[in-house]
Amino acid sequence: MSELVSARLRLRPWRAEDRAPFLALNAEPEVQRYLRPMTRTDLEVWLDRIDQQFVSHGWGPWAVEDLASATLIGLCGLAPVAWEAFFTPAVEIGWRLATRWQGRGLAREAAETVLDFAFGPVGLDRVVAFTVPANTASWGLMERLGMRRLGAFDHPKLPEGDPLRPHIVYEITASAWREAPERRAPGMAGA
């Protein structure tokens, strides 16, 4: 399984000891504000699916670790979109950081590292990202990454009337990513 390293972060496969801290991270009000509520069982199932995705593809949503302290600070990575929408089939990039690690440019650094990997060794042609319109920090990051807004959709995994159901979606192509190297952090090393 691949591990990615940037200036301040290590993106690595998940370990058994990551589960409890990741469950705690997902319970933080600032983290879950724009996300579908998940029970402990939901999160355990999700982490099991992530493990299987790494086995199947060699990539997925990595555990994000601060290099200096070796602390698990969140998640960032790739996942195939498993439902139909106007922009599928697609591979999504997503990120989630513990509240105390937000606002330091770490989500951007992690996302840039993942996009370098997606458009390099993985050979993807395009990557999408989506969120609720109120999540200005997330779609602002999408725009800083050079992604362009494709439109809006209702998330099919959320019921009618759920305030989190309306989403916006962005995309970036491999050629657009390669044409704007100044947008990316210096160097990413894969192991």
Description:
This protein is of the alpha+beta class. It has a single domain, classed as Aminopeptidase (3-Layer(aba) Sandwich), CATH 3.40.630. It has six helices and nine strands. It has a six-stranded antiparallel beta sheet, with helices on both faces. A three-stranded antiparallel beta sheet has the order 6-8-7. β1 and β2 (9-12) form a beta hairpin.
Mean pLDDT: 92
Helix content: 25-40%
Distance between the termini: 9 Å
Number of domains: 1
Rounded radius of gyration (Å) = 16 Å
Question: Which CATH class?
Answer: Alpha Beta
Number of helices: 6
Strand content: 25-35%
Widest sheet, order of strands: 5-4-3-2-1-9
Topology:
Layout: E1 4-5, E2 9-12, H1 19-26, H2 29-32, H3 40-57, E3 61-66, E4 71-80, E5 91-97, H4 106-119, E6 126-131, H5 136-144, E7 148-154, E8 166-173, H6 174-178, E9 189-190
Antiparallel strand pairs: 1-2, 1-9, 2-3, 3-4, 4-5, 6-8, 7-8
